[in-house]
Structure formats: structure tokens, C-alpha cells
Amino acid sequence: MKSISLKTQTIIFVFFGFMLTFAQRSMKLPADAVFYMEINGKQLNQKINWQKLNPLLHELSKNSKEKPSWNDYSKTGIKYDATQYHYASFNDSIQTYTTHFIVDNKEKFQEFINSTKKKGLEISKKKNYSYVDINDNVFVAWNNDRAVLSMVNYTKPYKDIWSDDVVIDSAVAVADSAAVVVDSAYIEPEKPFDYKEEIISLKEDIKYLKDNVRESNKEIARIQKDIKYLEKNHKYPKENVDTQHPGGEKEMYPEEEENWGDAETEIDSAYQKELDSMKIENFKIVKKIAEDRFDQYFSSNLEIEVSKVMLSFRDPNADAYVYTDYGRMVNDGIYGKMMKRFEFGQFFRNAYNSNSYYNLYFDKDKVKLVNNYQHNNPNIQKTVESVYKGKKNKKLAALINDKSVGYYVVNLNGAKCFDMMYDLLQDSGDGEYKKEMELMMETMKIVLDEEAITKVAPGNGIFVLNELKSKKVDYTDYEYDDDYNEKEVKKTKDIAVPDFTFAFATENEGYWNRVFNALSANKHLAKKFSKKGDIYSFKNEKGDGYMDELYFIVKDGIVYLTSSTENLIPHGQSDVSKQWAKDSSRYPLSGRLDVQKLLIGLDKEFKTPSERKSLDLFRKNVGEMYYKTEVKGNSIETEIDYKIRNSSENSLMYFFDLFDEIYKINEADKKPQIL
């Protein structure tokens, strides 16, 4: 008896434990998610100055059709200092973007929703949440402490132009719901007819028509009047050429133009009904998809379960973290079908079969973005890493100078580039030309002397933009008289011409000298390509382009291509440029760009007063950008730093401050000038 009681207690304990676990299950991220993002609200909320941001958001919203009814965006009921989760997925027919966030004031949040939704649109109540459609494809659902925004786009399945079969995937399966769309209609278990639900559905159709179709009827009527008038008179009425403005429309058109034929009216009516039917059909589908996702989430423990792969390189100290599956983006859906049609499509599918991870930081004086690239094939990933392990070249780094606008340095292993190409070609699946591809690769390995090729260009190179110079050039413009007769007009303009040096290392100087000698000796190129001493030059006789003359020289194991022979003379380096040179030798890829110097050089490209004002603003505020790439943590890691140059509280508010100033300049230009 005691044994039976113990077994019964054990069974009950296991049963309730199972029920508890089941009731508190997390919602798994959709299996077809190709994008995932976390917003670190705890950190970002401390960096946002709402006193500055609120007026800007309010100013932007005043241009909307409906009068804004919300002034303080810092008090929407959303818990801004909590983590937000974003993810996106897509297939041939459905694209979704979903955001999860925490609500700390349900009443305030509902007030905010009421201010953004269409007037008269009622909020739908479900068992454990409420929801409303803000737009035709944007839905918001919430309970006491959680909210979800879901944007859903649906495209009716089509015949697959990339294959001979009808799209099997036109039966769109929503991976994380029980709903399945087949030719724009959901197939669900048959239920007894419920006239109440049918009435609710019909009322929703009426609301949709009132909110959407009525708004377009007036515009359709105006366009139809324009068409009829143009057919008869071949021009717009003199009373009001700008027919986009409704004022005076009745006086603008003769009375007889308003009497359209019955046949045309019937066609327009039939077209409008068909258009309305399609909109309603699509709306029902996206609404159903959104409802199914809301049901799944609010029936869970309100936590999101994310795979370890997506979080591989997440830094909890980052302000934002993003994961992207480029392999699925390119290889799935219509892009994947396109690739299958190409003979070497699998090569590109292999090349893009990778994941990228991003950590974004808004520091006090700079914005930092760290990207980790990782191929899904471990063998290809190792080969890619080997490409980024090249030798350093100090001679190239000596070309960096204090006055340079920017530079980009490459220190790669050229020999390993062949291995990477082989790996991508070998893993090409059982395609039509698989055997031919394998034979071609074996032939390449036999014929090509990889060692000799890499001596020609081992993988070290540099591009230095020294400055941008102004130059006047002639050009032909065209003007038109009142009868649209064309007339050529000769004009001059100032353009920015780059003064640069491009150089790369070589272990076979003779090869490049033979190349340049052949070019200078060629009878067709002799007029443009010449040699003086050790320097070869290519001259544009017209002088109407960006490059009047280019110079080539092979010297001390370096091949130079430059816009000026002065760049071939070594320049002294200060402590700053020495540090740049040192950094450029440390990394496989690295670079720097002084955006302020770049804009100063582009001064002549900005003509109008508005452009000049914007240029002055940017020149005062833009900073410097640094770039470096290296192999790190079984990935290719790239870090981009952008140093700011103004008095903003931090680099996040820097962008808002800059946008605010640009917006004010544009708004000032729209106002009529007082004479």
C-alpha cells in the first residue's frame, strides 16, 4: 500500500512538473529568421536626451496627414531601459518584421496606441491580450507588461519564372504557427458556422473600405478629369496648371467634361471593386498571420528562445547587437531560384553561405562597430582565415603622410587566394557541370604556377588619397526653348580632382617593366603612353576628365601608379602618421578617412545656397573614420571607429543633433523669401 502511494505521488509530481514546464515554455524564434537584433535599452536610455529628441520627433510628425496628438515620446508607456528584441524572416510570399518590448504603464501605452491608430478603429480583445492594426500591414498587441509590433507583407504566389514548375512554396507555411496559406487563403480545420463571427468579419471589411478606399476615390476622380481634359485639349487648363491642388477644380474644367460615359464609369467601378477585393483579401491574410504570432507569444512565458549560433559573438556591453544570415538571404526565396538557373550559381551560393555578427557602441567621443564574419563551412572558413595572414611591407606604409585625406592598406596572402577559389569551386554540389568544373580546377593547378604568380603580386598594396584639387573643365549642356527645340551650350565648371598614389609590392620587377614597355611601344597607345627615364606616363590629350596624366614606375620592389611624380618622393612622418603607418602594418586590412578634409576638397561640388549651408554644417561636425580587419575568434573581425567632432553629449546624440540642424536648413529653404 505504501509502495502504491509512493508511486502515485511520484506520478503526480512528474505530471505537474511536466505541466509547469509546458506552461512556462519560451517562444522559439521562427526557424526562417534571417535577422535578429537586441537593443540594450539600459545603456541607450541613459544616452538619449529626451529634451532634445522630443521636439525633433514632434516636428517631424507635424508633416503627417493627420494632426499629431502626442507630444512627449519619452512617456509612451514603453520601458525604454529594458532590452528590445527584433527579428525578421521572409520567403517567396511572406515577409515579417517583429519587435518585442516591455510595457511599464499599460494605460499610458494604450493612450499612445489610440493616438497612432486610425480614428474610429476599435481595439480587438483576445483571451490574454489586445491588439489593433495601425496600418494595413502593421499590428500591435499587448497585455499588462509586454507588447509586440508585427509588420507583415504578403505577395500572392506566382508562377515561378526561374523554373518549369509552379511554385510549390506558393502554399506559404508560417513556420511558427499552425496557419498555412494556399493561394492566398488559409486552410484550417472546418468549424461550425458562427454567424456572429461572420458579422464581425463583414464589419471589419466595411471599416477597411471606409478607412482606405474612400481616401483614394477623390484622387482617382481628379486624375480621370485630367485624362479627359488632356485627351481633348492636349494641355492643362490655364486657370490652374498645377492640378495637384484641388482649389478651383470646378471652375477649371468645362461642365461637359464632368459627364463621363456610362461604359467608362462601369469599367472604373469594376476596377475599383476588384482593387478593393484584393486589398481586403491581403489584409485578412496578413492579419491572420499577425494573430497567429501574437497567440503563440502570449501563450508562452513571454520569453524568447534564441539559438546559440545567433548569439555567438554577442557582447553584453554593446548598445545594440545584430545577427544576419547572409547565406539564407541569398540562397533562399527568389534569389536562390535565380542562382539555380546560372551554370556557376552554386559558386556564389557557397561564397555567400555565411553569418555576420555586429556589435554597435555609442561611446562618448566615437561610434564603434565590430563585425565578425564566419562562413558556415568550417573548411572554407579556415581557408578564408589563411588569406588574411599575409606578410607586412613597411615600404608601402612609408607612403602615409600627415596631409593625406585617407588611405587603405592591404596585407593579404596572395597564394592562399587560389586555395579559397578552389574550395568554393569544389563544393559546388552535383550540378550539370560538376565533372567539367573538377577537371578545370585540376588543369588550373597543373598549368598555373601559383608561386610565380604570387611573386608578381604577393598581396600587399596601398591606396593613399593625398588631397582633392580643384580643376576647371569644359562641358556641353543642352537648353530648350518654349517649343522644346534643343540647343547646345558650351559651359565650364569646377570639379574635384584626386591627387593619389596606388602602390603594391612585387617580387618580379622585370614582369611589370615588360608590361609597361609593351604599352609604350604599342603603335595604338604610343600617343598616350610614353616613357621618360624610369617613369612611364599615360596622358589624356583632351584634358577634360578627372585625370590629365598618370605616372607608373617600378622601384625597389614596389609598383607605383600616381597622379603626380611628387608623390614618389618620400615625405617625412610625424609621430601621428608614424603611428598610422605602424597600425597599417599590424592588420591584414586597415584604413583611415578624414571626412572633414574630404568635404573641404569637394567644396566646388556644392552649388546652391542650401547645399553650401549643409556643407558648412558638415565641415564643422564630421570627424575621422578608422578601419581594421584581422582574424580573431574563429572569425574575420572588422572594427570601424568614427570619431565625432562637436559638443554633443555622446556619439548617439551627435547624429540627432546633426539631423536636427539639417532639418532646420531644409525647412528654412521651403519658406518663401521676404523681399
TrEMBL record:
For the region Disordered, what residue ranges are annotated? 238-261
Coiled-coil intervals:
199-233
Record keywords, A-Z: Coiled coil
Query: Which residue windows does the record flag with biased composition (Basic and acidic residues)?
Result: 238-253
Top-rank taxon, per record: Bacteria
Put simply, this protein is called: Uncharacterized protein
